[in-house]
Design goal:
A hairpin with a 2-residue loop joins strand 6 and strand 7. The protein folds into 2 domains: about 1-85, no CATH class; about 95-245, Beta Barrel (OB fold (Dihydrolipoamide Acetyltransferase, E2P)), CATH 2.40.50.90. The two termini are about 35 Å apart. The chain has 6 helices and 8 strands. Helices cover about 20% and strands about 15% of the residues. By secondary structure, the chain is of the alpha+beta class. The protein has helices at about 5-15, 35-45, 145-155, 205-210, 225-240, 245; strands at about 95-105, 110-115, 120-125, 125-130, 175-180, 195-200, 205, 215.
Length: about 260
């Protein structure tokens, strides 16, 4: 998705798609996941803020989430009632399209361009990688390595601009990929990102991350179609002690040393 969602729409998306009680716990949210401060504040309040801050969006404890995000801004501490989500009127369908990778956000999220003008932020279905962009908190162990691995998968000549042996910028050409949604999953996540499998001429980006030990299998609410394949790829990396399984003792969400 290109550009910033209007605040009301983004907030409604965050609240209406929040997991139901008993569902699998979603990965921690970052301020970078919200298009503006007002959206982050509304979500923060919906999760019990300022008394409770499970995603650590209020780094200084003053009751205001993500103060460095752009405006529109909202410094109120009382949740604003949101309209109910519209009912589902049709069964989910599978969507497939060809695109070009234009950016890597982190180890499990990329941006692609379809045709000349349509752009999407794609969250890869079925995997989770260590965080790298949570303001005020340490980068998680294995996070930069997971991003470096995704840059290698997404671009023909990614760059290491600081000489640390890890790719940190895109370079060359973005790879041509096929993007496929899964009818067993929601079409978009709570932040408006398209949920999909992404495959280049070299194969699935998600399974490549799993086999390299840069990601773990992640199931949200209900199993996805390629779960067995993903579990096999994860097991191969774990058994071989590759990537984060070795470097971080298999803890994909611990602070980076």
């Amino acid at each position: 998705m290109n550009g910033t969602l209007p605040t009301a729409v983004a907030v409604a998306m965050v609240l209406s798609l929040a997991p139901a009680a008993g569902a699998a716990t979603a990965p921690d949210l970052d301020c970078a996941d919200f298009p503006n401060q007002a959206t982050a504040q509304s979500y923060f309040l919906s999760q019990g803020g300022p008394a409770s801050d499970p995603d650590r969006l209020d780094s200084d404890g003053d009751g205001i989430a993500c103060e460095l995000n752009p405006c529109p801004c909202d410094h109120s501490t009382t949740p604003t009632p949101q309209p109910p989500a519209p009912p589902v009127t049709e069964a989910p369908t599978r969507t497939k399209f060809h695109a070009v990778v234009t950016a890597v956000v982190d180890g499990d999220t990329i941006r692609v361009r379809r045709g000349r003008h349509r752009r999407y932020t794609v969250r890869l279905i079925g995997i989770d990688t260590p965080e790298t962009k949570r303001p005020g908190t340490p980068v998680e162990c294995g996070g930069p390595e997971a991003t470096s691995s995704m840059l290698r998968l997404g671009f023909t000549r990614p760059r290491d601009t600081d000489g640390d042996g890890l790719y940190d910028r895109k370079g060359g050409k973005g790879r041509h990929v096929k993007v496929t949604t899964d009818p067993t999953q929601d079409r978009r996540d709570r932040y408006g990102r398209l949920l999909a499998y992404v495959k280049s001429a070299r194969g699935s980006l998600a399974t490549a991350q799993l086999r390299a030990g840069r990601a773990t299998v992640y199931v949200f609410a209900r199993p996805f179609e390629q779960l067995a394949l993903f579990q096999s790829a994860e097991a191969s990396a774990r058994d071989a002690d590759r990537g984060t399984w070795d470097e971080c003792g298999g803890d994909f969400h611990s602070a980076s040393p």
